[in-house]
Specification:
The chain has 389 residues and is α/β, with parallel strands linked by helices. The protein folds into 3 domains: 18-56, no CATH class; 63-89 and 199-385, Rossmann fold; 91-190, Rossmann fold. It is 40% helix and 13% strand. The chain has helices spanning 4-11, 31-39, 42-45, 53-56, 67-73, 91-104, 121-133, 147-155, 174-183, 198-214, 231-244, 260-265, 306-320, 326-342, 360-363, 366-371, and strands spanning 63-65, 76-81, 113-117, 136-142, 159-163, 188-190, 222-225, 249-254, 300-303, 347-352. Strand 7, helix 11 (231-244) and strand 8 (249-254) form a beta-alpha-beta unit. It is globular, with a radius of gyration of 20 Å. The model is unreliable at 1-29 (pLDDT under 50). It is an enzyme of class 2 (transferase).
């Protein structure tokens, strides 16, 4: 397996997000200021000065202690606030890296078209990156995704094709339709987020190092998150495992309808995908190329029911003042359970993928919650937040 350093060198990408802001900001004047910047953690340093456009703002998100849950468990439950990315989700990182990968490989020229199959957030990140770089953007997505995501993509200038949600082995799967669309165009590339390992590399080079520095040099016991493409979980796990000498435990969190929890628990047996989840953009029916190199590094996995995820959406809003989507809430549930399993005093990091505003017409609608049988999963004192019909 290639080391972190060699994998980064092979891609020949600049240290886009892992470096301090000196490459994208005005240099500080004076040797004392320069020395202070050099000694400052990258996340803090990145916010000292203006950055170079949208892409310069990607990364370096805060790590938030979830106070109520931390007090309940006697642990530190920490959430990486990816909803504070300029495009609103953790997928901004992957979007930037897959576009940079295409540029580095000469697969796209100025004025070209980026095509992707996505459940929404990668598409939103790509639409932002494409606008900032002057590319056209075409998105294929399952028609089960929230209307808020579809509307936002179109507002960002993307050409959006919602298509029936079918399995990956079906030729009409949204990923295959995106690939064929790119093949029909000149100066176009299908960025293939699920199996393009530039996605994983984004987290080896940025998310992992940021978490390491934000926990005072890796003073943490566990990392856990759900996965769709596999990039966030795999890349962050790879970095934290190598940097800690394997000491940091890394687990997968999985929603209903995904096969990865059973795959890990069975020692590598893929089950047929059954059922579904209210969460969007996570869960998987196969081991992607992004996940494949690092799935063997995972120490465990947890299955998180939708009832627990929706309850945590409302708890985080009420107790922490944090407005997160169901996938983020699932991660928080998983981090809490991991902390309880590792014991009091443990320190766990997870990913707060995006905000609830992309799903609010569903998550805060009584009619929708009733249709999913989830109203009773929300404690009575929290049902005051169900404000939509």
């Amino acid at each position: 397996m290639a080391s972190i350093a060699s994998s980064a060198a092979a891609l020949r990408l600049p240290a886009l997000l892992a470096s301090t802001c000196t490459s994208s900001c005005r240099a500080l004047s004076g040797s004392a200021s320069t020395m202070a910047l050099a000694q400052m953690p990258r996340v803090a340093a990145a916010h000292l000065n203006p950055v170079a456009g949208f892409v310069g703002a990607i990364g370096n998100t805060p790590l938030i202690r979830l106070n109520k849950l931390s007090e309940e468990t006697g642990c530190d439950i920490l959430g990486k606030a990816e909803f504070m990315q300029p495009g609103g989700s953790v997928k901004d990182r992957a979007a930037l890296f897959v576009v940079k990968d295409a540029e580095e490989k000469g697969l796209i020229k100025p004025g070209g078209t980026i095509v992707e199959g996505t459940a929404g957030n990668t598409g939103i990140g790509l639409a932002h990156v494409c606008r900032s770089k002057g590319y056209k953007c075409v998105i294929y997505m399952p028609n089960t995704q929230s209307q808020e995501k579809i509307d936002l993509l179109r507002m960002l200038g993307a050409e959006v094709h919602p298509v029936p949600a079918v399995a990956f082995d079906n030729s009409e799967n949204y990923n295959h339709q995106a690939r064929r669309h790119a093949e029909r165009l000149d100066n176009a590339v299908w960025t293939n987020q699920f199996d393009n390992t530039a996605n994983r590399r984004a987290h080896i080079e940025t998310t992992g190092p940021e978490i390491w520095e934000q926990t005072d040099g890796g003073k943490l016991d566990g990392f856990i998150c759900a996965t769709g493409t596999g990039g966030t979980l795999a890349g962050t796990t790879r970095y934290l495992k190598e940097k800690s000498g394997g000491k940091i435990k890394c687990w997968l969190a999985d929603p209903p309808g995904s096969v990865l929890h059973s795959y890990i628990q069975s020692g590598g047996k893929l089950m047929e995908r059954q059922g579904g989840s209210i969460t969007e953009g996570i869960g998987q029916g196969r081991v992607t190329e992004n996940l494949k190199p690092d799935i063997g590094l995972l120490d465990g996995s947890l299955h998180i029911p939708d009832e627990e995820s929706i309850k945590m959406v409302y708890r985080c809003l009420d107790e922490e003042g944090i407005y997160i989507g169901a996938s983020s809430a699932l991660n928080v549930v998983a981090a809490t359970q991991m902390a309880q399993k590792l014991g009091k005093g443990s320190r766990i990091v997870t990913i707060l993928c995006d905000g609830a505003y992309r799903y609010q017409a569903r998550l805060f609608s009584r009619k929708w919650l009733e249709s999913k049988g989830l109203v009773n999963a929300i404690p009575e004192h929290l049902q005051k937040y169900i404000v939509l019909n």
